Amino acid sequence: MPDTVIVAGSVAQRPSAGGHTWVFLQYLLGFRGLGWNVLLVDRLEPDMCLDAGGERCSLEESVNFKYFQDVVSGFGLDDSYALLFDRGTKCIGITRERLREVASRSALLLNINGFIDDEDVLGRAPVTAFLDIDPGFGQMWRELGLHDPFTGHDHYVTIGENIGRPDCEIPTGGIDWVTTPQPVVLDHWPYQEPNDGAFTSVVSWRGPAAPVVYRDKTYGLRVHEFRKFASLPSLASASFEVALDIHPADQADADLLRSNGWSLVDPPSVAGDPWTYQSYVQQSQAEVMIAKNMYVESRSGWFSDRSICYLASGKPVLAQDTGFGDRYANNEGIVAFSDLDGAVAGADLISGDYARHSRAAREIAEEHFDSKKVLPRLAAKLGI
Description:
Elements: E1 4-8, H1 18-33, E2 37-44, H2 63-74, E3 81-85, E4 90-93, H3 96-104, E5 108-112, H4 119-122, E6 128-132, H5 137-144, E7 155-158, E8 178-179, E9 199-204, E10 212-214, E11 217-219, H6 222-226, H7 232-235, E12 240-245, H8 251-259, E13 262-265, H9 267-271, H10 274-282, E14 286-289, H11 293-297, H12 305-312, E15 317-320, E16 334-337, H13 340-352, H14 354-369, H15 371-381
Parallel strand pairs: 1-2, 1-5, 2-3, 5-6, 6-7, 7-8, 9-12, 9-14, 12-13, 14-15, 15-16
Antiparallel strand pairs: 3-4, 10-11
Helix pairs in contact: 1-10, 12-14
């Protein structure tokens, strides 16, 4: 009987992005907590391997490999990974033969953002599911004929929970999308007592994707939304800090944020691995979640995996509404906003009765995002 869930994702490529790593850990640890054997399948190419100074180096000398090893060892996955190197010619962890065997008798291969394209693995898994965690971009690229990431899988899953609804502008492309919230493993994210830290977040200013023009409308990036809320700290009673990945070419934007009271910190210094990331989240008072313009304008229903970690830790979330409002926001624990006035009022609301919002945040995580509820529902939808 199939007893293994394979999670394919990119850990080794981003050795200083603890929050990114947690995306994959939530599925691995979540399925393991449900009694499944799990296997992480990752890939790395020689030109991605860098040393601490940012210079090309061998796999063994790279910060990528060290980070990857630290993660799998730190979460008890030492015997549960396959790192495909140099176009899959080398398999580190379990052997290529063993990987084929596990894939052949797996219950599910969950391919996050289609990260693994190795047909020797995908073609052997009885059930494959593409998990879309960046809704809108791939669907619009496909419709525009620019790129089709959605091929070669049995099922297509998205965290854009409004896809397929009349008010969502993301095209389905004729795909029968399975929608799901993202999970959090509550045992790994315990409730934290309220504190008087700042409203924080860990975000990229632009990210790897460019804006998309679809049906004469431009769907942009986080920068295009964040600028609208630059004056938030100067208007609200709370303090605001963001671990912001921003390019030096955007120095004018960084100056704009600082002049309005935002405290900016370097993401690797506070969230460079899963443990420092978790500590940063849990030492915060709350999160301020400003979404990508794509998620907002399309009414995708996207809700951040990062925000879910804040909720589980008892940290309220002041969240820009992407269409999730009728699903999660109730002005306790999650306070949604659509404009600057709403963001200011929401921050003051959370600060005004913080203990209540803290308790409500954890309750929302337990009700809606607990991996012990989310993953069995997802598995049932996929027929496993």
